[in-house]
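for ur thesis appendix - 1-acyl-sn-glycerol-3-phosphate acyltransferase. copy paste whatever u need, i formatted it the way the template wanted (i think)
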Amino acid sequence: MKIITGLRLAATLLLAALILLVPAWIALPFRQPMRTRIMTYPFKFFSYLLRWVFGVRLTAEGHEHTRGPLTRNHLFISNHLSLADTPLLLSLSPYPFIGKKEVLRVPIIAFAGNIGGNLLFDRADPEDRKRVQRDAIRRIREVSSIYLFPEGTRSKTGEPKPEPHWGLIWTAWQENIAVVPIAIFGSEKIIEQLTTRVWIRYGQPLLPADFPTKEQFATACWQRVRVMFDELKAAAESLIPGSAVQPSQEPGSAR
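the 3d part is after this line
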């Protein structure tokens, strides 16, 4: 399995060089809105191919709601199980991410991601967290919606953490930015298996105006992630016909 994993990682870097480098250099001279626009489809295609490279059988629901008016003024939040979570989400709806600065060590992909609009910060620096929150709100309003893993790190138990980092979700309430909850189930097994079945569900946006306080809003957002995760887990484990999430029929977004 180690040999297969090594070959998969090598294929990942090769695909990144072939698919992402040229668009990234083309986008570099432009301002951020155009950079993000240029990198959208290369990242979606690259991420879709990675699903094949890593043997992922993806069942997805609800990502059709992320198009149209949701291309701006929305924060997407998801539980975090694996390094594969990012390309899985990008293969469905390719928006920039907020992430830790350690991803800069990943060759080619980090460079292209920065060009595409990813926001990185130092987790050990509270001021840098505040800086990225300010930048994220501006990007969400002016450029595109953004993904966030509010847990900060991958779950070690396979379950969403009881409480994530609330900061940006609180800020979203204060700035009247809707939050779209997302649940991922099964992705933690991708690296160690030849083929893996993964389920993803996007929920309907939660609106700040429907909640009197930022705490109630943030709690409701994360609770929705956890409820959807439990639903996906139950459907996956029961394997009762008709109980599992149905795959989208849109090209490039189902199995």
